[in-house]
Amino acid sequence: GGMRMMMESREEMEGAVGLRCTWDISPPAGTPAKWVKLNVGGTVFLTTRQTLCREQKSFLCRLCQGEELQSDRDETGAYLIDRDPTYFGPILNFLRHGKLVLDKDMAEEGVLEEAEFYNIGPLIRIIKDRLEEKDYTVTQVPPKHVYRVLQCQEEELTQMVSTMSDGWRFEQLVNIGSSYNYGNEDQTEFLCVVSKELYNPPSALSSEPSHKAKVRPTLLSTC
Known about the structure:
Blueprint: H1 2-16, E1 35-40, E2 43-48, H2 49-52, H3 59-65, E3 79-81, H4 88-97, H5 108-118, H6 121-139, E4 144-153, H7 154-162, E5 168-182, E6 185-198
Parallel strand pairs: 1-3
Antiparallel strand pairs: 1-2, 4-6, 5-6
Helix pairs in contact: 5-6
Pfam families: BTB_2
GO molecular function, one term: cullin family protein binding
Protein name: KCD17 protein
């Protein structure tokens, strides 16, 4: 046992600097064969007992040690595992070199399912971290903006801006001239443009509180 642990740690150290060392010391008599065949959902994978036992708590390690898992074998002696072979490649490669490498079309969720089935803790953590990062970048997409144009007179302007409901932001003021003129009272009309950032899908719009200022559906055309 001690010799095997020394060999494994030495191989891992060398693996870390990019060197590969093949151990050709023949195992003592009575130890199980070095090579293991797995038939995953009809696809055969060939690997070593040492690779499968990199993660001691994994299903694969227990399988090839023959503990409490009496797995069926096919006619070639390969262990039969009823799982999707598509996602088994990255699992096996992770046990070989400690990195998660995926083809661009391969869903991380699929590999996560298999990593959880085979109980490979470090890989589960790596994939969950990557999925969280992806979720984070998705939420960083700039929100949509909704614009509204409100028409009001000069004296209503201050009140309207101060009573704007949460989330609405003042964007622009357009002077559209005087609407009426009684003696000295020259009331200037304004179009007030406000905007709101929308993080939710458009369906949430219906629950928007109605604005306190009067909103006229049609804009006055000014000459």
